[in-house]
Amino acid sequence: MTTVDRAAGRDLGGAGAGYEVGSREYRRLVGALLCAGVACFAALYAPQGVLPLVAQSMRVSEAQSALLVSAGTVGLALGVLPWSWVADRIGRLTAMRAAMVASAVLGLAWIVFPGFEGMVVLRVLQGLALGGIPGLAITYLHDEVSPAQATVAAATYVSGTTLGGISGRMIAGPVAELWGWRWGVALTWVVAALGSVAFVVLAPPARGFVRDRGVRAADVVRNVGTHLRDPGMLVLYAQAFLLMGGFVAVYNYLGFRLEAQPFGLSAAVTSLLFLAYLSGTFSSRHAGRLAGRLGRIRVLALSWSTMLAGVALTLVDNLVAIAVGLVVLTGGFFGAHAIASGWVGARAGTGRAQAASLYNLFYYLGSSVLGWVGGMFFAGWGWSGVAGLMAGLVVAASALMWCGHRGVRGV
To answer: Which of 6, 146, 366, 374 could cross-link 245 (Cys pair, CB 3.0–4.6 Å)?
Structure first.
């Protein structure tokens, strides 16, 4: 076996030996990954639903308060590649369990920290810990299920991330109105911790992965270089960066718009809009099935169009129109994410852990950078600036995919 194959953690070792649909182990694996998605994204985005309250209590600007979200996603982006190397040495499942424990401890630490700057630093560290979940979850899935079911199972994991996003925001907002934002985020942390426990209990033993302690950092770097020289992979990574960045910007600053005049909503009422994430739970599952009939590129095109229609509706100064627009936008985004993330795993011949980790690196860099940049657009042009940013990013993502379609076609 070559060093490049070995750096993939021998992820080809389980080919053809995956858990079949209907088996007890398959149900446990899918349930475990659902819980992993809940745990990761409840912890990662818990502050997003209370950013206006954070800005008020900590006396910081809108863009500064959003650093509590961006710092976590920056840490996650920085952590995905190191975690892929760790996982190749100790196993995907063991690495994910360690990441969840570290995230739980650091999550409690930043919630109780008194100073804003220290909270931001601790959020970066928590993000580093969380980096061991998203990239490894998809890789673990591809190791353990039959290839024919990988896309559907990946979409199930993505639906779990939407449930985590909902729980983080829906719990924090109402509780924060009663007892303050720290208590709201703390209760969300409890939900994330329970999701972690459920993952540890449910996840079946890994049988498609053969541990290799001889994996070197140089092998990981070589795999990373291989993927970054692949035009098809670069197009898929661009989808992650652009679409996620705009999506997070929308959710970061919509609360500021709705809590200001003419709406004047409370944080508890504004948090109800995060129920729009349920459309992502639905669309991510069905996008995987639809791709089997129509092809990935057509489902992506449908998702882009849906996102543009949704962001256009949010420009209307009417709460019903804004809510409908958010539902449509969210459904389109998670449909695109389910297709792109699953496509990366299917395209990777070797170094699958690094391929998935790079996708997550670009995904969360987009969240961190463009989610923060959205604050500048909001400060300069109000909500129309944020909506325009979102629309421009969708158009850019679609243009790159059409131009580079030959590079990803045939996977």
So the answer is: 366
